[in-house]
Specification:
134 residues; mainly alpha; 5 helices; 79% helix; flat
Length: 134
Amino acid sequence: MISKLKNPAIRRYLVRFLITMSFYVIFLVTAVEAFHRYHPTGALAYVLAILPALPVIGVIVIVGLYLREEKDEFQRAVLVESMMWGIGATLSVTTAWGFLENFVPVPHFDLFMVFPLFWGVVGFAKGLLKVKYQ
């Protein structure tokens, strides 16, 4: 599938993304299993806890590389606009939820869910923009 893509920037993005997400799965399973079975403490616990975040940070770098390598200005603009919607929605939701948590009894919003929230909104916005610009 990836080799059939004509756009080299998207092809490189997908290869990088799939490799990085493979590491995410490996690191997440490793951390969960280590904490479940061995109950690490000290520095090892900190290293294991942060391990799944490293590929997530890598995804941010990969998106930046894609934006730099993409030659089609329209495609770049659509992604940037989608990401702006994602940033706005994520900041709005997390800020509002934070105030709710401070003042009324609502469930806690785990911070590791901010990243998927952001990309979910980006994907939704990109779909809407695709319809808008057809």
